[in-house]
Amino acid sequence: MAGRSISYITGSQLLSLRRQPTIAIVDVRDDERTHDGHISGSLHYASDGFTDNISKLIHEVKGKDTLVFHCALSQVRGPSCARKLVNYLENSKEDVGIKNIMVLERGFNGWEASGRPVCRCKNVPCKESECAS
Ligand SMILES: [Zn+2]
Questions:
Q1: What are the record keywords, sorted (predicted)?
Q2: How remote is the C-alpha of 14 from its chain's centroid?
Q3: Could you check whether the bond before residue 21 is cis, i.e. omega within 30 degrees of 0?
Q4: Pairing of the two strands 66-70 and 23-27
Q5: Measuring CA to CA, how many Å separate 8 from each of 14, 42, 133?
Q6: Annotated catalytic, 81?
């Protein structure tokens, strides 16, 4: 796990990659997710209490090798939660198969401002196939 680093992905890159079965999108916004919609198929792990839920997250993304974190702007919460996961994996002895940890540039707000599809379902987690977008 040594040397793992966080890279950035743009909205247009994510738009073309997000249907890949090995990618998980992790939304770490807090209450805003309820009001502002979300990227379809994204998981929700609020930044508040994120550390306590890391093992649950790792379990939920079994089989995925790429995790893309975002918050509203991806300036504070998104990168810091991504960093917490990197640290956790570096300290953990188990190989969970996560190879890439990324942060979505400009976050959800940038995604929405660029006119990319926003899902407003109330499912937790979002069930992509049932979403209009
Ligand atoms: Zn949804």
A1: Oxidoreductase
A2: 11
A3: no
A4: parallel
A5: 10, 17, 24
A6: no
Alpha helices in 1-133 (DSSP H): 11-17, 32-36, 54-60, 77-91, 107-113
Q: 3-state class of 78 per DSSP?
A: helix
For residue 5, the CA-to-ligand 1 centroid distance in Å is: 29
Q: What is the largest CA-CA distance in the chain?
A: 41
Residues 125, 61: contact at Cβ < 8 Å? no
**pLDDT digit string, tens, across residues 74-128:** 999 999 999 999 999 999 978 899 999 999 999 999 999 999 999 999 887 887 7
Query: 92 is written with which tokens?
Result: 């953990």
* Å from CA of 90 to ligand 1 middle: 32
